[in-house]
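Annex B.
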Amino acid sequence: KRLVVLVSGSGTNLQALLDAIAAQGAQAYGARIVAVGADRDGIVGLERARRAGLPTFVCRVKDHASREEWDRALTEATAAYEPDLVVSAGFMKIVGKGFLARFGGRVVNTHPALLPSFPGAHGVRDALAYGAKVTGCTVHFVDDGVDTGPIIAQGVVEVRDEDDESALHERIKEVERTLLVDVVGRLARNGFSIEGRKVVIP
Ligand code: GRF
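Phosphoribosylglycinamide formyltransferase: predicted structure tokens.
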């Protein structure tokens, strides 16, 4: 299976996928990354892709006349690589209707909180501020909402009294990386079906 991974930052989730595929071999893992896309330049995630010899593309909102134009550009750039699955790994933009029309049902996102709690761009900060005793991460399919698609897997992380946002996020990311690698591999090898809010991986 062909994966396109979308990033916006350090790309440690991307790196975890790259390392797993290198260690297991694309055949055994069931997928290989064919390209990495981003919404901005100058991020470590793109350096990781280049270091792995992967093609990259950058679609910046400000380069386009409208959000719809940006979404069209992102869709076309992604489609050029003919992905079987798109993995949003720390991609910090909400994809639009055009992208979902093209790839809907095969876009996987990872979120650093236990959805439906704490959706949006500050899930770690919000859980901490709320005083949650446990939080975690969620791997889910993307639908037309924000972090609302069918849940595939979740991992629980305890919140410690001394945690600040970055300490907690780092601890979440340790669980998140493992969860994402496992889920993407299973989806690629076994296939899947989505029945309402239920994801079935045979
Ligand atoms: C991840 O925790 C992701 O869930 C969140 O931002 C982080 C991205 O980390 N949206 P990285 O870029 O994969 O290191």
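The chain has a mean pLDDT of 98. The beta strands are 2-7, 32-38, 56-58, 85-88, 107-111, 134-141, 151-158, 193-195, 198-200. Further annotation is deferred to the next reporting cycle.
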